[in-house]
User: Which sequence fits this backbone?
């Protein structure tokens, strides 16, 4: 497949999990992928795996919380690879803690990565797109926690709700340049992040069965499921789609509540 031949696609947090899945699928579809992630070991490994498979990928060390790092990533992309067509804001962290134990440091860590990171990367990617008259797109990886959530998730839910609100505002601001902005809201997705969370719980096997049963389609998502939605939103097939949020969660968020009775 070569839907994205010669398109330059930046994926933040592509060193692992959902981001790595997105980077791989987009590269398979012909894109030149920038792996904009924080950890060198992960970044070089993903770059090496992808280039060994014959794909075009470049790791640029990036901390999305740091304005200079984000500017450096965009400048390096422009000078060494070319002008950005698609930005996928995927980098994110999670701290789930009871509200009364959550510290300001916890708040700053999550908001800086999950929300400020989206703002900084979008700002500099949009500058690049506007300067080069690129009718590009920005895709924000939010979460179903922006819609419905659980106890002890206040900071994460606030960050993800903020992403959805910012998506709509950016879509309106950037529409006049032909730049589209959408968000994807994954539910449970099978990454090491999810596995670490699960195995830290009591009776993880029982919990996993319960989680799957909550899904209308009977299972959680894979990173590739999320990547296919990115592929659609980055393509011309979605040419008139902007300012929208897309749940990819197997029907989990549609459920009002769970009962054995019906
Ligand atoms: N896994 C899930 O169940 C799930 C569900 C809903 C939403 N999400 C969202 O999907 C995104 C990816 O989640 P995941 O499960 O793949 O996470 P993950 O922990 O597996 O991967 C996150 C990646 O982001 C990188 N990263 C972290 N902080 C960074 C920073 N400051 N700058 C640059 N890179 C940074 C990490 O090094 C890692 O490579 C996140 O935004 C998360 O909130 C995940």
Assistant:
């Amino acid at each position: 497949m070569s839907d994205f031949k010669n398109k330059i696609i930046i994926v933040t947090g592509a060193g692992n999990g959902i981001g790595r899945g997105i980077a791989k699928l987009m590269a398979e579809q012909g894109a030149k992928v920038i792996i904009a992630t924080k950890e060198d070991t992960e970044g070089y490994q993903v770059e090496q795996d992808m280039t060994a498979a014959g794909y075009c990928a470049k790791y640029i060390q990036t901390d999305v919380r740091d304005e200079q790092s984000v500017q450096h990533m965009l400048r390096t992309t422009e000078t060494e690879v070319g002008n950005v067509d698609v930005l996928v804001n995927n980098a994110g962290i999670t701290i789930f803690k009871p509200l009364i134990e959550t510290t300001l440091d916890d708040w700053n860590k999550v908001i800086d990565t999950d929300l400020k990171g989206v703002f900084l990367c979008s700002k500099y990617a949009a500058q690049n797109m506007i300067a080069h008259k690129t009718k590009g797109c920005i895709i924000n990886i939010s979460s179903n926690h922006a819609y419905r959530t659980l106890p002890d998730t206040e900071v994460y839910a606030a960050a993800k709700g903020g992403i959805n609100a910012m998506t709509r505002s950016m879509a309106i601001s950037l529409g006049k340049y032909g730049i589209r902005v959408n968000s994807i809201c994954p539910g449970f997705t099978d990454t090491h992040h999810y596995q670490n969370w699960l195995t830290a719980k009591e009776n993880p096997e029982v919990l996993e069965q319960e989680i799957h049963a909550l899904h209308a389609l009977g299972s959680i998502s894979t990173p590739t499921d999320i990547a296919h939605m990115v592929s659609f939103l980055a393509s011309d097939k979605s040419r008139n789609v902007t300012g929208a949020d897309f749940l990819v969660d197997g029907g989990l968020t549609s459920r009002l509540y769970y009962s054995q009775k019906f």
Q: What stands out?
A: Residues 104-131 form the longest helix (28 residues). The radius of gyration is 18 Å.
